[in-house]
Amino acid sequence: MKDVKENRWRLPLRFGVLGYLALLVVLPVGTVFYRAFQHGLGAAWDAFTTPDALHALWLTLLVGAIAVLLNTVFGVGVSLILARHRFPGAWLLDALVDIPLALSPVVIGLALVLVYGHTGWLGNWLAGHGITVIFSVPGIVMASMAVSLPYVVREVLPVLQEIGTEQEQAARTLGAKPFTIFRRITLPNIRRGLVYGVTLTTARVLGEFGAVAIVSGAIAGKTQTYTLFIANSIDNLDPQSAYAGAVLLCLAALLVLTVLTLSDRGREAWHRKAPA
Amino acid sequence: MSIHVEHISKSFGEAAALDDVSLEVESGSLTALLGPSGGGKSTLLRVIAGLDTPDSGIVRIEGEDLTGTPARERGVGFCFQHYAPFRHLTVRRNVAFGLEVRRRPKAEIRSKVDELLELVGLSHLGERYPSQLSGGQRQRMALARALAIEPRVLLLDEPFGALDAQVRGQLRQWLRDLHDTLHVTTVLVTHDQEEAMEVADRLAVINHGRLEQVGSPTELYDRPANEFVLTFLGPATRLGGRWVRPHDLAVHQAGDAPAPPGARQGAVTRITHLGFEVKVDVELDDGASCWVQLSRGTATDLGLEPGQRVWVASVESPEPVEPSDPSDAAEPTRSTLLHA
């Protein structure tokens, strides 16, 4: 039952919220699209396909693939450990995983440079073995992994806790070996949480700027990721490239949102039909 | 196949879940582990299955020492209280799981699964998912899944615990029939003494991690080894400091006839009609109180009313149990009062 007072506020509230979204998101993003295609599709395409832009795109995809893959494996592993085992210090591991959520990426980047840079104690040793981390691809991958560490764990861990261990125990009594149980029982059960976590991780890695900016050195055509390429284009008074790049990231975001929405719906349906 | 459990102890932290339990389960029998919640009976079942490791003791199935054998190699069929259905697999695939991980030929799996679904009456629901089944159907699916691996023994943890009363009754009978068809050695865990007595050939009463008594339902009911077994297995009341079954007591109106030997005098405090059964509470002159279970006919013939003076006497009491520490006694079981 809605009272009159609530009705009177409903319209202003709606306009308020819509206006807020319009000013913060719709208008700016819309402008980027407008500017990108202002001089026609051809000009936009040319901006997309400059050597530096293509290299930045390729590097971002490469880094993303490695970082997402490793964080998926790590995230599932940590979730399994936290959900299935009791050990002293579990709370610490749980808390450590969350650090990247709270900490500024710039600090993470700086910390990586301190340890893995040429003057850092590990970096020095690695350099002695011919491995350069900072200002190089390994550093970018590490920075991307560090900032996107929590997402898989935060999505998969609650699912693991919710499903419990009975299905796995049942599989054990039926003769399944540990890896078979993981592949045929655990993985299908956490699949939706995993898709969600991997998608969030991907979005975070593609959009990362701060940490990567510090560790990569942003050398065009070498260690410049896509976000760095966009920032660099702005600095170099080459707005057309920046707009084009921004549009591509917007499209990636759209894809991410689609996957999340679909997986959300799937999850709701899953919960609806889950046995009581 | 027989199961031998020898001197099993298991504790979780400080609490002893099982304390030197030894038990023999005959081949082909249906044995119920009966006891109050938290008494250790589920732990014993899990130890037999290899899902829990005992701190000490030996588990043998058909003479073979399986104490160190992982659960997956024990050939034990286990049904969980909440059935643990594989939620992402259809009923067919659930039942087929144990055969698939054993890499049996596809045709063999298909025919075996068909046969099992037929056996548990789920042939028409093979393509459904567990979430689309009722509780009783899920239970039968879990049984078919456990039976698929042709287990040496079948272990059921509170098989009817999560079902409503009506379905529970039907499934009990069904399980009993199934057992009579298959003769697979079965151990089930339950806290419901009525269920245990109805379904099982043998009962093993477990309390506080200890085995109190093993025997047929009649043996345990008529000749309980101690106060706990007596009070847990059925209604019990005290007369003259001894435990008796309330249906083994007779009531006479005081003055109608000379008091029988050993009778005690008192006053009726309450008469409760529970369908066929009538429960008469009597406050005895020695300050104690007891209750008597009568059939409705007997109660009507006696014409009892609250406040009336009565004699209460033991009709027959095969082997009355001397009371030990009163805290050891289970509460007179409410379910038996209500089941009539």
Q: Summarize this, please?
A:
The complex is a heterodimer of chains A (276) and B (340). Chain A has 276 residues and is mainly α. Helices cover 81% and strands 0% of the residues of chain A.
Textual characterization of the structure:
The complex is a heterodimer of chains A (276) and B (340). Chain A is mainly alpha-helical and 276 residues long. Chain A folds into two domains: 1-36; 41-273, MetI-like (MetI-like fold, Orthogonal Bundle), CATH 1.10.3720.10. In chain A, 81% of the residues lie in helices and 0% in strands. The two termini of chain A are 31 Å apart. The mean pLDDT of chain A is 88. Chain B has 340 residues and is α+β, with helices and mostly antiparallel strands. Chain B has two domains: 3-227, Rossmann fold, CATH 3.40.50; 235-338, OB fold (Dihydrolipoamide Acetyltransferase, E2P), CATH 2.40.50. Chain B is built from ten helices and 17 strands. In chain B, the strands form four sheets. Chain B has a six-stranded mixed beta sheet, with helices on both faces. A five-stranded antiparallel beta sheet of chain B has the order 13-17-14-15-16. In chain B, β15 (277-284) and β16 (289-295) form a beta hairpin. In chain B, α2 (91-100) crosses α3 (106-120), α2 (91-100) runs parallel beside α4 and α3 packs across α4 (135-148). Chain B is elongated, with a radius of gyration of 24 Å. The chains are: A mainly alpha (276), B alpha+beta (340). The A-B interface holds A 163, 166-167, 169-177, 180, 184-185, 188-189, 191, 273-275 and B 49-51, 70-74, 76-78, 80, 82, 84-88, 97-98, 101-102, 129-132, 138, 142, 145-146, 148-149.
